[in-house]
Amino acid sequence: METVIRAPAAGILLERLVDPGDPVVPLTSYQAGTDLATLADMSDLIFKGTVDEIDVGKLDMGFPVRLKVGALPDQAIIGKLTRIAPQAIERDNAKLFEVEIELDSVEGVLLRAGYSANADVVIREKKNILLIPERLVIFEDEGAKTFVELPGDVPEAEPRKVAVKIGLSDGLNIEVISGVKEGDKVVQRPPREIEG
User: Fold this and answer.
1) What torsion do the CA atoms of 158, 163, 169, 172 make, to the nearest 10 degrees?
2) Which residue, 57, 77, 97, 111, is the most exposed by fewest CB within 10 angstroms?
């Protein structure tokens, strides 16, 4: 006896778990049933990843996300954060929170299930700003005052401290709102030798 089994939804066949002629059993309250295939709607993709507990407090639903897909290094994939797990999981002695990101469809880009990717969540963003390496900024009074050193008027002169107002930082570079302008030279002190 032959039975026709129709897919409950449209999509792409990702995996066929049985071959023609294999015995299958139906889903009942007494048995799990046999999985026949895995289908997916490839027009509505979700990225699943994890965020460290240190960073999860900075995130909120709807934040824009930029993805870098390993197999498509030249393609810009964007999406938005749609789920942050309420409970952490532990992996390699670190507490991580699972997140889900809905991907926007990109014309002419074929995304496949199972691609590995890294996601950058955009918390705050500014464009056309002046940046300097953060290591050149001198912090005083627990960060209340910030300075940079500019070269003296003559080569032998000591550098002079100039107060600057700073903005966003990515940990390496920092925004300078006022105090110096584009093209100014900033002094970088050589690293100190530690004795002992």
Assistant:
1) 0
2) 57
In the block, residue with structure tokens 């002992």: 196
List of domains in the chain = 46-121 (2.40.30.170), 131-178 (no CATH)
Burial of residue 98, with CB atoms counted within 10 A of its CB: 0-12 exposed, 13-18 middle, 19 or more buried: middle
Q: Residue 106 has which token pair?
A: 């990109």
Candidates 100, 65, 106, 71; CA nearest to 86 is: 100
What is the pTM (predicted TM-score) of this model?
A: 0.62
Rg (CA), the chain: 27
Q: From residue 96, how far is each of 54, 120, 130 by CA, in Å?
A: 9, 16, 34
CA angle 57, 63, 66 (to 5 degrees): 110
- Closest-CA residue to 104 (of 41, 46, 174): 46
Q: E-assigned strands of the chain? A: 12-16, 37-40, 46-52, 64-69, 77-84, 89-91, 94-103, 117-121, 131-133, 138-140, 145-150, 160-163, 165-169, 173-178
Residue 83: pLDDT band (50, 70, 90) is: very high
